[in-house]
Amino acid sequence: MATLKLKLQLLHNGEIAMGPGKAELLDAIEVTGSISAAARSMGMSYRRAWLLVDVMNRCFAEPLVETHPGGGKDAGAKVTEAGKRAREAYGALVEMAGAGADGFALEGLRRMLKPE
Amino acid sequence: MATLKLKLQLLHNGEIAMGPGKAELLDAIEVTGSISAAARSMGMSYRRAWLLVDVMNRCFAEPLVETHPGGGKDAGAKVTEAGKRAREAYGALVEMAGAGADGFALEGLRRMLKPE
Fold first, then answer.
1. Are A62 and B112 in contact (CB under 8 A)?
2. In 10 A of CB B112, how many CB atoms?
């Protein structure tokens, strides 16, 4: 059956404050306890992961990720309480968007497709 | 205020049967009456537009776009009745996903952002 892929980005001051990549990065930091390990586990460069964290921390009133000061690239990092709340709200948002779309119009589109 | 950007793709047999780019292309073909003019109006190459049309026509049971036979690159093209129905159902889908997401979780996320 045809499936729906949903990508949801929260735009704030011309930047993407939250989206699928940033949500996945928060999860990976939560698990690995460091930005560089999280980046590795996602096949992402350290520089790119650091930039995503920086955008999140600039967009939100409280930082979503805290790094240990003076530790450099291999220092530990953790998702703050604000980070956990933001991650959770984003997950709920994605779920609700999916639930909203999963109705009559989707069935109509599916019925128009060729058999698989 | 932070806005939500929603990208919705309908996956079918490993291909994207419908998504934002294809929906916009259908609109442009409807307006311009040709694939090459539609591509130009979107700043897209003719080759890419043609490929997107080809994917749609292979995924759906009835073709969404009809080209005049033997006309080559500058021949006219039109969105079929099936194409109009698919375009409309996709639009409804996007709207309903947005409506689904536009609630409590979004407000929660918005309130966590820095002032603009």
1. yes
2. 20
Give tens-digit pLDDT for B21-62: 999 999 999 999 999 999 999 999 999 999 999 999 999 999
Out of B60, B99, B115, name the one closest to residue A113 (CB). B60
Which residues in chain B touch residue A89, judged by CB atoms under 8 angstroms apart?
Answer: 105-106, 108-109, 112
Task: Give the gap in angstroms from C-alpha A73 to the nearest C-alpha of chain B.
Answer: 27
DSSP H/E element including A74: none
Predicted complex ipTM:
0.80
Residues of B in contact with A23 (CB under 8 A): none
Q: Which of B1, B3, B12 to mutate to test the interface with A (most CBs of A within 10 A)?
A: B12
CB B77 within 8 A of CB B57: no
Q: How confident is the model at residue B2 (pLDDT cuts 50, 70, 90)?
A: confident
In this complex, the residue of B3, B9, B105 whose CB is nearest that of residue A92 is B105
> Which residue is it, tokens 């918005």?
B110
pTM (2 decimals)? 0.80
Phi-psi region of B33 (alpha: psi -120 to 50; beta: other; left: phi over 0): left
Cβ pair B46, B36 in contact under 8 A: yes
- Distance between CA atoms of residues B29 and B76, nearest Å: 9
Closest CA to B94 of B13, B27, B31: B27
